[in-house]
Design a protein that fits this description.
mainly alpha
């Protein structure tokens, strides 16, 4: 990937993207493919009960992040200290991730509490991480830079999965499930290692006046209130945030419950789930890197709409799949679209948000994603609880892609408008 800026800017871009490599281990190994499935099938009393409990834990962490994100984003912008806030939230994810090694079969409460704390740190960190995107990229290459981070993130998750596969297959003893539990230590170490460059090499805008914490909190609330009152001045950014609130709910839910669905419906083992995850990460990484330049050319809005159309098809195929190979087709389509969708969403918001409020708008971005992300897992869990069918639960998520796409249609994309 070529960038028009000099070597200093390239170093910042790469350092920024490497953070995505680090945090990908958490979302890949804990949220999606290993710990979530191991919790529902081993720690919880039974898979269906485990799925319902897991959905509630995801709901709880999503609600916490939804309530905090706009405020902490505004506080970071107001103080000019996004990097400090990013460090704190990174630690908040890494430490509980390492402690997830300790819960064993039957330790439901301990496992869920640690997961909720780690997931809050992971999701809140994205507020500040995404807030750096418009600062390390230019308006001309923001789609490619966003795609680079997304793509490298999936390849980071891929390598972490390969290492985890070796751990599960025989590098570690199986007594007391050490071979599976140790993957959480891998998550913590991986995240810590690849998070280092962003704190060393990414420059931050000069800090504002140092304020006491209470004053900073009050200023954060006041800034959010001002932004809400003047959202009509940033109408397209507001429309994108609302649309993304809906379609990201479906995206996160389908992706988070894919391994649970596969294990419950087709009986995949932990090793098979890891292979399943490797294939999805390859598809996600390749498509994220390949479609980054396409996003700069077509615009984020068109890219998002294309991915939503394919995600609808993938959800229908996956929910109705009668054989494992058919489900694999759906999973690979899902994997190929999730990265470009997320990359295009954040690059489009980066273009639509005012320069002095990047972290604040990405706080609303996280707020929209997490507030609605309460509904997706909740709908999945309720549908499963009422129908007893994992297929019905998966199929119910389709509605989020449809509504989200319709809400996105009125947004004016700066790329196509400029063209």
């Amino acid at each position: 990937m070529a960038f028009s800026a000099g070597g200093g800017r390239r170093r910042e871009v790469i350092s920024w993207a490497l953070y995505d490599v680090g945090n990908s281990a958490f979302t890949t190994l804990v949220v999606t493919f290993i710990f979530s499935a191991w919790f529902t099938n081993a720690i919880a009393p039974d898979p269906d009960r485990g799925t319902i409990l897991w959905s509630r834990a995801v709901n709880a962490s999503a609600l916490i992040v939804a309530l905090l994100s706009p405020i902490i984003g505004a506080m970071a912008d107001n103080s000019g200290r996004k990097k400090l806030w990013l460090l704190l939230t990174t630690i908040l994810c890494i430490v509980p991730s390492a402690l997830l090694f300790f819960p064993q079969r039957g330790d439901v409460v301990l496992a869920l509490v640690l997961f909720v704390i780690a997931n809050v740190g992971f999701e809140a960190g994205y507020v500040f991480y995404n807030g750096f995107l418009p600062e390390v990229a230019t308006r001309e290459n923001i789609g490619r830079v966003s795609g680079l981070g997304q793509g490298l993130g999936y390849f980071g998750g891929l390598v972490a999965l390969v290492i985890a596969l070796g751990m599960v297959r025989g590098w570690l003893p199986r007594d007391a499930d050490v071979h599976v539990r140790s993957t959480n230590l891998l998550v913590a170490a991986w995240f810590a290692l690849f998070a280092i460059p962003i704190f060393l090499f990414v420059r931050e805008k000069p800090k504002g006046e140092v304020m006491p914490m209470l004053a900073l909190v009050r200023a954060g609330f006041a800034r959010v209130a001002t932004t809400v009152r003047h959202l009509r001045d940033h109408r397209d950014a507001g429309r994108l945030i609302v649309a993304r609130m809906i379609y990201n709910d479906g995206l996160v839910t389908v992706f988070s419950f894919a391994s649970i669905f596969a294990a419950a419906t087709f009986g995949l083992t932990t090793e098979q789930l890891i292979v399943f995850g490797i294939a999805i990460n390859v598809a996600s990484g390749v498509s994220s890197l390949a479609l980054g330049p396409v996003t700069d050319r077509l615009g984020g809005k068109k890219t998002i709409l294309i991915t939503l159309a394919v995600l609808m098809v993938a959800t229908i195929i996956g929910a109705t799949a009668g054989t494992l190979p058919t489900f694999w087709v759906a999973a690979l389509l899902l994997g190929a679209m999730v990265g470009p969708n997320q990359a295009a969403s954040r690059s489009l918001l980066g273009l639509l948000s005012p320069a002095e409020k990047h972290a604040e708008f990405f706080g609303f971005f996280a707020f929209s994603g997490k507030l609605a992300s309460v509904l997706g897992p909740l709908l999945y869990g309720l549908t499963l609880d009422v129908t007893g069918s994992q297929r019905m639960a998966m199929g119910s998520i389709l509605i989020f892609f449809v509504i989200g796409g319709l809400l996105l249609l009125p947004v004016k994309d700066p790329v196509t408008t400029r063209a």
